[in-house]
Known about the structure:
It is a single chain. Helix content is 67%, strand content 0%. The protein is mainly α. α1 (3-20) packs antiparallel against α4 (59-85), α4 (59-85) runs antiparallel to α5 (90-101) and α7 runs parallel beside α9 (182-210). The chain is globular and about 55 Å long.
Amino acid sequence: MSLFNKISIPACILTLIYVMAYEPIFSPDTTTYLQMQIYRFPGYSIFLRIFSKFFGENYAVFIVLFQGGFGCFAVHNLAQNIYKQFKLNVWQAVVLLIILLYPFYPNLWIANNICSEGLSYPFYLLCITYAIKLLYSNNIRNVLFVSVFSILLCLTRGQFIIFPLIVAFIYFLKSRHKLLSKTTLIVLTILIITPVFTNLLDRSYHKLLHKHFVSTPFSYVNAITQPFFVSKEKDLKAIK
């Protein structure tokens, strides 16, 4: 076992044990996902329905176990990839692990919360993992992993829809001298069509369930969010 694995694997196991020592955390969002409301993305709604169907009243405990285990798996993979690719020393690897595992502890409780962050966080880490592999290796298979995990991520949290386009832009800059090569064209095409395909899946889900061929409303990045966040109660009087 490598030195990194001797650090990372016990850290992930201890994190999972810590997570399972605490109860699941429910919120109003949990109910709206279970109800498959139209303003919720399909990923986590379907995920909750499947677990509640198979595990009944105790479904939340198994969700915490899955989110904790899957999250630790994603943390280990990303940290290992960065450790090898950028040749980190031991202390740098330890700091990286602490940063990546922090969301599983108070006050974030990302695995215990029965909300979409429990899935979107590991999906996001795996997207970064395979994006790094794609950019630093010649293995074209990595673009398929980036695409698949990007689709799963965006169907869980829609604001990440631009992730494949960011990777495509970086890949374009890296490969601009061989832009017309078959490999480059395939990679760029897959990355560019991924958001389009994701949007079609999202719309098709709402068509089947809600009878409307629309993307999930009240989602993505909203320009009004910041003014709402910094506003004060008295500001309401300024609006007639």
